[in-house]
Amino acid sequence: MTSVSTAAARKPVRWGRLALHLGCLAALLVMLYPLAWLLATSLKPADEVIASLDLLPGHLEWSNYETAFEGVNDVSIWRLLSNSLLIAGGAVLGNVISCSLAAYAFARLRFRFRGPMFAFMIATIMLPHHAILIPQYIIFNKLGMVNTYWPLILPKFLATEAFFVFLIVQFMRGLPRELEEAARIDGCGPFRSFFQIVLPLTRPALITTAIFTFIWTWNDFFSQLIYLFDPDKFTLTLALRSFVDASSQSAFGPMFAMSVIALLPIVLFFLAFQRFLVEGMASSGLKG
């Protein structure tokens, strides 16, 4: 009698799990469909890109990738790729260094007006980027930095990303202070405690900062469009737009092929550090 009731109780649980798995699978297919469409469209001939709604191409047009690898405006795709990596790498390095230093000051050091300054920093998260775009452009224009990579990299070394500062502050507040107190007794100053004790323990939050910075900078189109004029300095993001304007007719197939190529570094970067991303978000930004 007991075994029959136990089996009856387990049956709804199994059906519930099956429904949950099917729902997750359906959601996964919905989210992956745009990626599958992008891959399929990059292999379609020009007349099928708009005229046909079929997911699979009727004829594989590998010449789309050949045209994409030739680049745009006499600039090879390898030059465009190196420009994107330079800007994204510089932004990652700047955010990791500056935001970690600012976060350590807010989380561990005691100084006057720390609370109001931290509140003011948090308030800048709600400030639209377009509100500071013109003053920032005027500053960089006066400094002669327009049409260079400095406007896209230099602000990252000044801890201007308040979101990442807040993220790292939340993580550092969860670290035990006894470690720094013991180091202070042994003669460690604030900088040595930061670099030898706090910074290694903050690795998940730093990797989270690096991942989001890389993705946001790599996909940034508007800022790069404002500051970069020379085609030799273009990134893959800018090249995608200019690829359409390079001829009188829009070459959608090669444009989608270049989109696939531009997507690969982001996917590889995310897959390499996704474990640290989940750990960093769970240990920092979600805590009170």
Automatic annotation (TrEMBL):
Gene3D superfamilies hit by this protein: MetI-like
Positions of the ABC transmembrane type-1 domain: 81-273
CDD domains named in the record: TM_PBP2
Keywords: Cell membrane, Membrane, Transmembrane, Transmembrane helix, Transport
Location(s), subcellular: Cell membrane
Main localization (coarse): membrane
Source domain of life: Bacteria
Membrane spanning residue stretches: 18-40, 85-106, 118-140, 152-172, 193-218, 251-273
Keyword Membrane attributed: yes
Family named by the database record: Belongs to the binding-protein-dependent transport system permease family.
Protein name per Swiss-Prot or TrEMBL: Carbohydrate ABC transporter permease
